[in-house]
Specification:
Elements: H1 3-16, H2 21-28
Length: about 55
C-alpha cells in the first residue's frame, strides 16, 4: 500500500469512528508523558475505537 492510500484509509477510519481530525489529535495528546512512553511493537493493523470507547 502506498503512503497516499494509507493516509486516506487512516483518515477514513478516524472519521468513521466519529472523530474530527483535530479531535483525534487532541485525544492522542491528552497525557504528554504517555507520548514518550516506549510502546511494544505492533503485531497487526491498528483499530481506532469509536469516540468515547477504548479497547
Amino acid at each position: 500500500m502506498d503512503s497516499r492510500n494509507a493516509a486516506a484509509r487512516l483518515l477514513a477510519e478516524i472519521l468513521a469512528a466519529g472523530f474530527t481530525l483535530d479531535g483525534f489529535i487532541r485525544v492522542l495528546r491528552v497525557d504528554p508523558t504517555a507520548d514518550t512512553a516506549v510502546l511494544p511493537p505492533s503485531s497487526g493493523l491498528w483499530r481506532i475505537p469509536p469516540h468515547g470507547q477504548s479497547y
